[in-house]
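Fold it.
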Amino acid sequence: MIPDTKTVHDAATEAAGIYCNLVKKYDAEMTTLDCGGGLGVDYDGTRSGGDMSVSYGLEQYASSIVQAVRIKCDSNGVPHPVLCTESGRAMVSHHSMIILEALSATPDPQDDINTTHEELLSVVKGLMRTIQKDPIIPSEGTAVNVDVEGIQKHGIELYKVAKKLSKKATSDAHIIYNYHMNLSVFSLVPDFWGIKQLFPMMPVRRLNEEPTHKGTLVDITCDSDGKIEKFIDGGLTLPLHPLDDDGGYYVVVLLSGAYQEALAGKHNLFSGPSLVHVKSTGTDGGFTIDCGDLGPTTEEVIMTMRYNVQLDIKEAILNKARTPEEEELVGELVDQVLKTMPYLNEYKPPRTT
């Protein structure tokens, strides 16, 4: 994303200069100037020009390009070209959102709950001094493996302590809750994992109640990276509500229409979600549900990995059955698993403590 209109203006001026040179000097019969992409999306709502924002809107972006090209063409006596852009991200980001359901919420272990900010900061400074104390200057025939391993060990410890310090500094409460979501980070929000893209998120239900929990979102895969613990505006937690017996607590990931579905992988065989197509009925905020499409079944996902479901999966499992009764029971369970989505479908969220 291009963060500010000055960059847009400068780039358009340079492109227009090349265009004018081709038309005047080489008599190129051109009438269109493609200004490329770069129109950004204000993900964090700050209009700050930061990594997750841009300091302009659509009108300012268009004005910068039109003005730059007009001035350059007028000064060279070249007719104004037709301008076009390829701003895919800005066009499609707002068309889609991902709704995630919470399965449970558990307190994050707090083994240092009584540790003060000052004590944690002192540990951080001590580890940094240890790492910087003895520089590695290897001489001929001298092994440095021990020194490198020591620095790596201290670096990992420094990361852990600094993370605890950050959470203490940004959270109003001592307890942070891990909300286990019916989610695969790799499959549904790959840009969060791949390029550290942050998306605006919020609860969908109970909007008339103040959220009292500080939460992180944990997916149901076995990956250590399957966790969302960085949020808009530098937050390490997301304000959420405690779960209740009614279940059905949802969190929405907004502005997810650009690239997430196209880039989504099948890591851990989780693939994509079910899709619901919604159409606006006008300016009154009303909408209609056009259609709903269930996500890929487990069998479909496995087949994309070039496995033969019948031979490599089902038959291999049935061969382990010791009796006809076991084979029938196992066969029914395997069929049920293969014909449903990999995500969890039937559950009742427990109460939080």
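The radius of gyration is 27 Å.
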